[in-house]
């Protein structure tokens, strides 16, 4: 919610400048910005820790520009997933400080603040064909202001490649593992780290992979106790969950620090 707008509205009510019905109507307007077929949940960050994320696929360029303008007016960082090239180009023209990742199909505005990051999430791919989904996770973490390290092409066909990066993975607060085919990599990673592993199945593989269903079922049946699974090709969801783990862990550790 826009804190300044809410404070002014509340003060106007206390000072008698607006009636109770007008206050309630204004409160609803501040909390939910609606026009045409779009309703923005501007209160999302106060409830959930991060602002609303916009799913770009199927939305018109004009709608996305309107949404971006509302976010910009409030100084709220915006993340658009599954954005079409033309929409990304138009967003970039109007907001030149935004970041478009063509591989991830994302567009985001920079988070406010000093540029410092909170926590660390490792994003791992089994193969290079999993990269678009993994890049979506990476861009989500960057939008959240969470530190991220990206390790590509360390799948189980060459297990020595994974062992080479295990020491780095052990430093992470959470690990996002993106894999298609049989989806075995999250279980292997889970057996090497003491952190939550968010498994993201991809629709990569030959016929019996069933466009990611085989990887999804394999990950759901993982015997590694620290593995949890999100939807097929859901790089955003994998990155977001891991980012919450990392940011909450460090928020709590800072709140419990005792000054000497």
How far from one another are the termini?
A: 36 Å
What class would the helix/strand composition place it in? alpha/beta
Order of helices and strands: HHEEHEHEHEEEHEHEHEHEH
User: What is the mean pLDDT?
Assistant: 87
Question: What strand line-up does the widest sheet have?
Answer: 8-7-9-10-11
CATH class of the largest domain: Alpha Beta
Beta percentage is 15-25%
Integer count of domains: 2
Largest sheet: 5 strands, parallel
Computed CA radius of gyration, to the nearest angstrom: 21 Å
Number of helices: 10
CATH architecture of the largest domain: 3-Layer(aba) Sandwich
- What are the segments in which pLDDT stays under 50 over at least 5 consecutive residues? none
User: Which term fits the overall shape?
Assistant: elongated
Assign a percent range to the helix content. Answer: 40-55%
Number of strands: 11
For this structure, the CATH topology of the largest domain is Rossmann fold
